[in-house]
Amino acid sequence: MIEGIITRGVGGNYYVDIGEEKIECRARGIFRLQNIKPLVGDNVIIRLTAEDEHCGYIEEIKTRTNEIKRPPIANVEQLLIFFATTNPEPSFLLLDKLLIAAETNNLKPIICFNKSDLDSEDKKKEIREIYINTGYKIIFTSIKDEKSLEELKSILKDKLSVFSGPSGVGKSSIMNAVQPNFELKTGKISEKLKRGKHTTRHAEIYKLSFGGYVVDTPGFSSFEFDGITEYELGNYYPEIVKYSSGCRFADCLHYKEPNCVIKEAVTNSLISETRYNNYTKLLEEIRNKKLY
Ligand SMILES: Nc1nc2c(ncn2[C@@H]2O[C@H](COP(=O)(O)OP(=O)(O)OP(=O)(O)O)[C@@H](O)[C@H]2O)c(=O)[nH]1
Ligand SMILES: [Zn+2]
Question: What pLDDT is attached to residue 185?
């Protein structure tokens, strides 16, 4: 019995990292009969073939903690949400959407503001204050600040992480700074691949030399509210959950209701205005969608 993790799957061949080497495996027929498809990220038990000790069969797939769809990967633990402190200016609304995507996919979000060398301590303080009472982990990185890269490494170590965030914020630069020669496939490149006639896109995870894995394609660049109702939206804002018990109506949407403790918490700077305004924008988005 040998344990490993699937790092790549192409046309029914799976590459299983067992520590010292990668074993090329086929899945046992039983999986097809049960309609189970092994996924990159799966923790598996393999058996080596008698003829060739570099090839094997996947005998067992361990229970998945989660499964993300695009790219299709199992057991991702963290979503690193990248924005730049400036150039381009961060979209705090998109950031909130990515936080919600992390939550709905059962991933731990890490908010990462890159290009921190371009900004003052005051701006960083302002950004931190937006996330007051959320409990989210926020880090500031720069390819020019070795200490910040060490902090990022300690976050990535021994975990399976996926990156997200808009174009130009420095995702590839940062990955190359923590892991030289790492080539993060960017949006542009994968578009090109898609157009190629004979290239099928497949997901892959990369082993970090200091421990852990990273998904090779950024995920969650576009985001749809999958089935979140207006009454559920507040559950995705930890600071709203924290303060909402005092609202007059149990089903208060904290929108236009009178005597809402959430609006009071915003006035008292216990909840940031930016986050509250994003919340109401998303609430309106959900409402408008219902009209169709
Ligand atoms: N000043 C500064 N510039 C940075 C930093 N990180 C990246 N950049 C620059 O920002 C630009 C965009 O960086 P990329 O790494 O291509 O950004 P990306 O997020 O991978 O963008 P896509 O590939 O389009 O998804 C490049 O010109 C980088 O040199 C940083 O920490 N500080
Ligand atoms: Zn309320």
Answer: 66
At 234-266, the pLDDT tens digits run 999 999 999 998 888 888 999 989 889 999 999
Give ligand 1 pocket residues (Cβ under 6 A). 114-115, 117-118, 142-144, 167-173, 186-187
Supply the residue whose CA is at minimum distance from atom 30 of ligand 1.
115
CA of 247 to the centre of ligand 2 (A): 5
**Nearest ligand by distance to the CA of 163:** 1
Ligand 2 centre from 95 Cα, in Å?
23
What separation in angstroms does the CA of 49 have from each of 1, 31, 57, 59, 96? 12, 18, 7, 12, 48
The span from the CA of 15 to the CA of 178, in Å, is: 24
How far is it, in rounded angstroms, from Cα 156 to Cα 201?
A: 25
Choose among 216, 160, 162: nearest CA to 187: 216
Contact in structure between 59 and 46 (CB atoms under 8 Å) = yes
- State pTM to two decimals: 0.91
Distance CA 218, CA 172 (A): 10
State the pairing for strand pair 13-17/22-27.
Answer: antiparallel
Over residues 271-289, the mean pLDDT reads: 95
Protein residue closest via CA to atom 6 of ligand 1 = 170
| Whole-number Å distance between alpha carbons of 140 and 151 | 9
The continuous run of DSSP H or E covering 103 comes out as helix 92-104
Write the burial class of residue 151 (CB in 10 Å: 0-12 exposed, 13-18 middle, 19+ buried).
middle
Q: What is the pLDDT of residues 129-146, one digit of tens each?
A: 999 999 999 999 999 999
